Amino acid sequence: MVSRLNPYLSFDGNARQAMEFYKEVFDGTLRLNTFGEFGQKDTPEADKIMHGMLETPSGFTLMGADTPPGMEFAQGTNFSVSLSGDDDTELRGYWEKLSSGGSVSVPLEKQMWGDVFGMCTDRFGIPWMVNITQPRS
Length: 137
What we know:
Residues 5-130 form the PhnB-like domain. The protein has helices at 15-26, 88-99; strands at residues 4-11, 29-34, 49-55, 61-66, 79-85, 103-110, 116-121, 127-132.
């Protein structure tokens, strides 16, 4: 897999509707995963979108999700830049450089969905998400 750089949008409970709208606009393949699919079945967030990804015929990738429980939604700052792929060395190198002099909100470590993931804000105030895909057994 080649590393990918794309916008990641955050929504205040309407990620499903927004991502379906963007699919109508750009066409392509839309995949949506809910919080319920990842251990939060009996919560008010169960049907909310934990991760959505639209890949278009033009080569665009747009990701988005509802703001997770415990995090505050802030209109105007509801985006991040996402780096993802399976090249552990390359992506960890980007992480080290991006987080240096900035702040880390989620340490780069293995997550409940099996990948290594972290969130940081670089020294210029730009939020980043890094996801390193792990081999599936």
